[in-house]
Amino acid sequence: MPEISAAEAPENCPLCGGAGQLFWQDKNRPYRRCVTCLLVFVPPDYHLSREAEHQVYLQHQNDPGDAGYRRFLSRIYLPVRERIPQDARGLDYGSGPGPTLSVMFEESGAAMALYDPFFAPDRTTLGGEYDFVTASEVVEHFRQPGRDFRQMWRCLKPGGFLGIMTKRVQNLSAFQKWHYILDPTHVAFFSRETFEWLAGEWGSEAEFVDKDVVLFRKK
After folding, report:
1. Which of 44, 60, 140, 158 gives the lowest tally of CB atoms within 10 Å of its CB?
2. Pick from 216, 168, 209: which is nearest to 75 by CA?
3. DSSP states along 74-113
């Protein structure tokens, strides 16, 4: 990887295209914050190779039979489930190596499709229309969040819900000590203000239902 320099030229935000100014840098990589949408992002030169990224994901131990993991996912599952029809059709975007959230929805009567660039790469699922789309602990991995969010939003039917689960940026002091930035596959970090910016772009509202869960409804 190239040497980190605070004097790097600003890079465009991968979410909105705005200018990214240096926010923080550690011994491994710099973090830039967009002046428009306030996304904090890692410049592409510091991303892992796709193969190295894949190897990290293969180490994840996601098991639908793990009661603790189900409790963790219930923070996004429950608020989405109570807002959708019993027989709703959903898409789990970034389903990972051991899909579990989709199993929870299927157990409650929903029909689920999966998309994951590594583990469920069938892009035909992105051509469907869904009552809801979920992305649990996924968006922080987006190298091109503008593209991924457009894909997810396009899949939603009018009146449908997009549920996002990710830890949120608070301030610089907290960011500098944040365990979330230690994962080299985490390259996009969202704040409350970033999600409010997204809601404005979509003509929606950001409903913050938990400390790391936000919902959007497509009008």
Report:
1. 158
2. 209
3. HHHHHHHHTTS-TT-EEEEET--SS--HHHHHHHTT-EEE
Give the pair of three-digit tokens for residue 116. 């994951």
Token digits for 172? 């610089």
**According to CATH, what is the number of the domain 11-217?**
3.40.50.150
Does pTM top 0.85 for this prediction? yes
The C-alpha atoms of residue 33 and residue 40 are separated, in whole angstroms, by 4
| Domain definitions of the chain by residue range | 11-217
Reported in sequence order, the residue ranges of 67-205 that DSSP labels E, i.e. its strands, are 89-93, 111-115, 130-136, 156-165, 168-169, 188-191
- Give pLDDT tens digits along the chain (219 positions): 334 444 355 689 999 999 999 999 999 999 999 999 999 999 999 999 999 999 999 988 778 888 999 999 999 999 999 999 999 999 999 999 989 999 999 999 999 999 999 999 999 999 999 999 999 999 999 999 999 999 999 999 999 999 999 999 999 999 999 999 999 999 999 999 999 999 999 999 999 999 999 999 999
| Three-state secondary-structure class, residue 30 | strand
Query: In terms of Cα–Cα distance, which of 192, 191, 172, 168 is closest to 180?
Result: 168
